[in-house]
């Protein structure tokens, strides 16, 4: 039931602090700030390569996770969309973990890729929201997200819960491989446990986002920019806007702008910049200035420090809490979801059941 919400998508966006806390609760032990994964029947420390396969929003969760697996566990990660994966004849060596991410656990392309990897002798890990799904049944390592049923076609809470699980897995793997000390593990766990409160502070800006939606609704094209682990969030923001508001949107790595897309910039193309303050901030801001110098209209999503430094001359800003870089992708998911949601409401589209889309894509 939708309760007091207008749409399931809206309800599911607002459930995130609760369901992310629930998910974290099943993977982290608060008593000693450690990661506690379910029983694993294989040696995680022997994994020498990770292959991530997924579709849509789940694929973007995988893209974020690649940064974490490489940074924490120093394990090389390949990542593909499922529909491309099998047909490029991937090299799957012994000792590899293939990781499939899916809300439904039934997406045909992802399931076919899973079976392919299984046949090739890979260890199969799955991150799914439906614990009784086909993917869950075929896994060697089942890592459920505890987001609860997701009804809106646009995936929201499943995404942030996937990120929570993947961060825990990356940290656990790093510990097992001797790449992360006990102190570092505690620190990672502490930061992850801050996520639900930070998600709440992000949700506090719902009204601000609703009141700026009319700036985006008339656009024909919208660009999203981000760097590092926030680059997949730019892709996710663009996907959310496309699927529910039917506005053409693209996400780019900020640094790629000058390699082509900047040619699109004029005063009719809003550019949404995701830039938490931190090591990558200055670089993103300089890409943002390139956009502004060409008459582009920028919406900057950053924290207080970032907005103070670079918020001037933007057509709108959205303030996020100051967060540790590890949880920024979870927290910055909220404004991109809300922005897409409110723009779709302004346009009057069918938010929960957008045209041409199904919740679960069970054909290849
Ligand atoms: O159930 P899955 O996570 O495997 O679904 C994958 C995609 O179909 C899904 O994320 C889709 O892109 C969503 N509509 C995005 O909001």
From TrEMBL:
Entry annotated with the keyword Repeat: yes
Main localization of the protein described in the UniProt heading: cytoplasm
EC number: 2.6.1.16
One term under GO cellular component: cytosol
Residues the record marks as active site: 359 (for fru-6p isomerization activity)
Positions of the SIS domain: 40-179, 212-354
A biological-process GO annotation: carbohydrate metabolic process
Function: Catalyzes the first step in hexosamine metabolism, converting fructose-6P into glucosamine-6P using glutamine as a nitrogen source.
Subunit field text: Homodimer.
Name this polypeptide is given: Glutamine--fructose-6-phosphate aminotransferase [isomerizing]
Species this chain originates from: Altererythrobacter epoxidivorans
Gene behind the chain: glmS
Residues of the full protein shown: 244 to 607 of 607
């Amino acid at each position: 039931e939708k309760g007091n919400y207008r749409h399931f998508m809206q309800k599911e966006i607002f459930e995130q602090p609760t369901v992310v806390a629930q998910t974290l609760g099943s993977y982290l032990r608060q008593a000693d700030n450690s990661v506690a994964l379910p029983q694993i029947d294989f040696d995680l420390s022997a994994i020498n390569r990770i292959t991530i396969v997924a579709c849509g929003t789940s694929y973007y969760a995988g893209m974020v996770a690649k940064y974490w697996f490489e940074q924490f566990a120093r394990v090389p990660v390949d990542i593909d969309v499922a529909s491309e994966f099998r047909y490029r004849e991937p090299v799957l060596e012994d000792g590899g973990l293939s990781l499939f991410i899916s809300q439904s656990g039934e997406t045909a392309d992802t399931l076919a890729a899973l079976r392919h990897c299984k046949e090739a002798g890979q260890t199969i890990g799955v991150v799914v929201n439906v614990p009784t799904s086909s993917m869950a049944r075929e896994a060697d390592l089942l890592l459920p997200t505890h987001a609860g049923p997701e009804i809106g076609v646009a995936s929201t809470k499943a995404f942030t819960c996937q990120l929570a699980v993947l961060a825990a897995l990356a940290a656990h793997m790093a510990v097992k491989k001797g790449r992360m000390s006990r102190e570092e593990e505690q620190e990672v766990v502490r930061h992850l446990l801050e996520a639900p409160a930070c998600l709440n502070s992000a949700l506090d800006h719902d009204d601000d986002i609703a009141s700026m939606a009319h700036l985006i609704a008339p656009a024909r094209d919208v660009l999203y920019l981000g760097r590092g682990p926030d680059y997949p969030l730019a892709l996710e923001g663009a996907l959310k806007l496309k699927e529910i508001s039917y506005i053409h949107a693209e996400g780019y790595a900020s640094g790629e702008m000058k390699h082509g897309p900047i040619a699109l910039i004029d005063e009719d193309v809003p550019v949404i910049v995701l830039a938490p303050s931190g090591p990558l901030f200055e670089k993103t801001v300089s890409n943002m200035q390139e956009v502004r110098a060409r008459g582009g209209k920028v919406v900057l999503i950053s924290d207080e420090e970032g907005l103070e430094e670079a918020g001037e001359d933007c057509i709108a800003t959205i303030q996020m809490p100051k967060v540790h870089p590890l949880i920024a992708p979870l927290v910055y998911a909220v404004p991109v979801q809300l922005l897409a949601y409110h723009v779709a409401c302004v346009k009057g589209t069918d938010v929960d059941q957008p045209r041409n889309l199904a919740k679960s894509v069970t054909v290849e």
